[in-house]
Amino acid sequence: MADVQLVMxxxxxxxxxxxxxxxxxxxxxxxKVTGIGRAPEFSATGAQADALGELTPETPHGEIVQRxxxxxxxHPEFGDIRAVGHRVVHGGRDFSKPVLITDKVLQQLTELxxxxxxxxxxxxxxxxxxxxxxxxxPQVACFDTGFHAxxxxxxxxxxxxxxxxDQGVIRYGFHGLSYxxxxxxxxxxxxxxxxxxxxxxxLGNGASMCAMNGxxxxxxxxxxxxLDGLVMGRRCGSIxxxxxxxxxxxLGMTPQQxxxxxxxxxxxxxxxxxxxxxxxxxxSGTPEAMEAIELFCLRAAQELxxxxxxIGGLDALxxxxxIGENSPRVRSGICAHLKWLGLEIDENANxxxxxxxxxxxxxxxxGVIATDEEGVIVGHMRDLVG
Length: 386
Ligand code: ADP
What we know:
- By secondary structure, this protein is α/β, with parallel strands linked by helices.
- It folds into 2 domains: 3-143, ATPase, nucleotide binding domain (Nucleotidyltransferase, domain 5); 189-368, Nucleotidyltransferase, domain 5, CATH 3.30.420.40.
- The protein has 15 helices and 12 strands.
- It has helices at residues 61-73, 103-110, 120-133, 153-156, 162-166, 176-190, 241-250, 255-264, 267-272, 278-284, 287-311, 321-326, 328-336, 347-351, 373-385; strands at 3-10, 15-21, 29-34, 41-44, 80-88, 99-100, 139-143, 197-203, 207-213, 216-220, 316-320, 365-368.
- Strands 4-3-2-1-5-7-6 form a 7-stranded mixed β-sheet, sandwiched between helices.
- Helix 1 crosses helix 3 and helix 6 crosses helix 15 (373-385).
- The chain is globular and about 60 Å long.
- The two termini are 18 Å apart.
- Bound molecules: adenosine-5'-diphosphate (ADP).
- Adenosine-5'-diphosphate (ADP) is lined by residues 204-206, 233, 277-279, 282, 321-323, 326-327.
């Protein structure tokens, strides 16, 4: 049976996975379970929707991971799983490079859960579920924070007392695996400009931007947590910290209620009252949905502008992830707020999904690149596991 490497991306309500034959860059199989905890749905290359058996809102994340592993092993044509690589959102200050999982590493990563309460427990839960399935299978963790380790200290600091900075209350940044992929392929799309001042906009359910120079991260819009920066599907993005004090002291909300409000009930969902999904908002057409889209675009342009002093200007802007790759309307809406930079897009190229969408006269090149976080993870896994 052929050897395969499995990549897992376990989120709060979804599990995505891809299987790779040794040394191949394209996966032989991709699958996902969405709606975990609400209405779970399974889909995978060539599989029936009920291949994992009955999935209910009560089916725990860990069991779903184990059912996926059971389903893969029941199909010898998918090969023999020899290693599993995971997307792990937070590596804290100790882990900037991918790492082989040991009990000690897992313990250290567990201690970081309060820094990413919506993501880290699910990422680590998938690692534990794989351990429960085959205890000695090599597993590798790749971190969303890792790519940002190159940032100068000043760009990571808050204006807080030094003791808190020393304790690690700093900007970490996320979506690093996506940025690592884009940084790698930038020269293919932009030639020499790739090594200049580039902002990459990763616009998915979670959304952030990374300002790069020489294809290294210099500044990013997400900070200490994955709440900061842009307005997202369900997260509020940057907010006056005074609002948090008011919610608790003025409105009597508990910290848990505030956490739920900021992570789950805000963003496009909260503003529109319709959906957290950009595609649904675009099709909905209610005034609130339109306003949510406009706010998303304005805040994205503002956040981009905030990173520019760190890289001294802008040579290229790249859109990626679900919204960035698929929504001409949002790309156009964001770029409309950036005309003051001499940035101009070719609306026809934008609508037809071209790779490069800037107008000839534009001072800034603008491109659309599909990201591949799984491809980055499998590469690191091969480096570490062989
Ligand atoms: P994540 O990986 O963070 O869960 P994705 O990168 O898959 O998210 O992006 C999901 C977002 O992309 C959702 O808001 C979804 O509505 C949006 N999206 C996907 N396809 C389209 C499309 N054709 N037009 C507009 N938005 C889209």
